[in-house]
Amino acid sequence: xxTRALLIDSFRMMVARRxxxxxxxxxxxxxxxYGSIGTNEExxxxxxxxxxxxxxMFANDSPVYASLMQGIFSSMxxxxxxxxxATILALVSTTSVFPDFQEExxxxxxxxxxxxxxxxxxxxxxxxxxxxxxxxxxxxxxVFLVVGTRIGDWNWTILAGVPIVxxxxxxxxxxxxxxxxxxxxxxxxxxxxxxxxxxxxxxxSAEGTLNLLKTQQEIEVQRLEQRxxxxxx
Length: 233
Prior knowledge:
mainly alpha, 3-stranded antiparallel sheet, 8 helices
């Protein structure tokens, strides 16, 4: 009962914040703009037919239009929105949870009750993840419905973005929480988390580049060996 009460209270505090509704509104706005892309006899339209964009190749729900919608999702919404912007919005919304909780008076009231510290920490952490889950789930469900109704492709793998983003964010938020507890500063926690995330991105990019160079060198060596063997014959 204590855990449930703490979780409900933590979630209510998150929902009561303006950032919750701002983030939710931004996610819904992106889905709405994506869903407003349609076609007519002349080509593409925006904002549910309010503006004609042209490009006759997309007219009347042509296969090219379906490819366009799938391309926007796979090339923009997933790598740009879900992987970066949505995660940044989630960090901004949840970074201050633990620093604010550690302020004088807030944590003392909770610790005065017979509740262990690890349970308090876990519930607060879980409450933040539920917040992120709701935001990502609403976004992915909206995109799923748009793709299904617009081009008839009910692609259930779109919903796989929810657990993927949530797992990735849980690691990132764990680091953010650690910095927030140590420094008791939401700004410091957000700054160091962004730097940590950027460092991981640089390492991943460097690893990918090195693997590509290694593969190219191996291919070149194989070609040289084939030429050498051919010259001997």
